[in-house]
Amino acid sequence: xxxxxxxxxxxxxxxxxxxxxxxxxxxxxxxxxxxxxxxxxxxxxxxxxxxxxxxxxxxxxxxxxxxxxxxxxxxxxxxxxxxxxxxxxxxxxxxxxxxxxxxxxxxxxxxxxxxxxxxxxxxxxxxxxxxxxxxxxxxxxxxxxxxxxx
Length: 150
Description:
By secondary structure, the chain is mainly α. Helix content is about 75%, strand content about 0%. The chain has helices at about 5-30, 50-55, 60-95, 100-130, 135-150. It comes from Rhea americana. Pfam families: 7tm_4.
């Protein structure tokens, strides 16, 4: 309560929910407007955007590129917020006078940091890898890593 009041916590949670809902709503609306002409079978655990675009018979590249730019803006805003938050957390933890207190605080923070790092790195690999590296088996493994493991 000395570092963050309940109103700031509610605003941060509302911003996270709103940005996630906006991103999902835009991608869902775009997905339902794409005509599919190569069937509707997706070789994935769930309907990922790159796999859906492979089934499309229209050139929806510009529309999808615009949505990806918006998603990247939301992602980098959230990423910067996470980095700034962790810097503040680590700064506060390093000010703890007792070694045992610092150890306990780091043992609480580091597992969360590892999960966030795993999610972000595998998600970036899934979406930013070159098409030459794409294979159905690799796409499934990466999907499991960034969706189920964290």
